[in-house]
Amino acid sequence: MATDLHYTAPGLSDADAQRVVELLQGRLHACNDLHLTLKHVHWNVVGPHFIAVHEMIDPQVEAVRGFADDLAERIATLGGSPKGTPGSIVGEREWDDYSIGRASTQEHLAALDVVYTGVITTYRANLKELDDLDLVTQDMFIAQTEQLELFHWFVRAHLEDKGGRLATDGATSEKGAAASV
Predict the structure, then answer these.
(1) pLDDT at 91
(2) Does residue 3 lie within any of the structural domains?
(3) Are 23 and 126 in contact (CB under 8 A)?
(4) Between 79 and which of 1, 5, 60, 101 could a Cys-Cys bridge form, CB atoms 3.0 to 4.6 Å apart?
């Protein structure tokens, strides 16, 4: 995913800027994919609690779209060229398409638990690397991670029993999580 940088932010080496742009691009793909996945869920969720879940998802869509815009602008600030086309997302992502179509609120929320786990895990891994590369980008990732973890909590609250155990505990795939509810 090499990008030619003709300039970067003052005080940031070209090599460090290159790596930061790569990390930003990965998160840009993740956020573009996530906001489309969330909208897909919004359109395809059915059953009891439909309206609550339907309305819970839209603010998440809007926030994640905003994250994508911030990530793309940071790439440009560092001298890179953000890629936001569908082909670049599909060609460069490290995950499969969301696998649940029209389904119950619980099935979609269970699948979203797996999706959010993957997105947040990668953000947190990137935070450690950014500690030595670029604290400005790290700050952006921290703020986005905080919001993603909040959204994840909203999703998981629907999957908990009164003892705090998740119905999706141990699930590693969207379909597996959906089947667990």
Answers:
(1) 94
(2) no
(3) yes
(4) 5
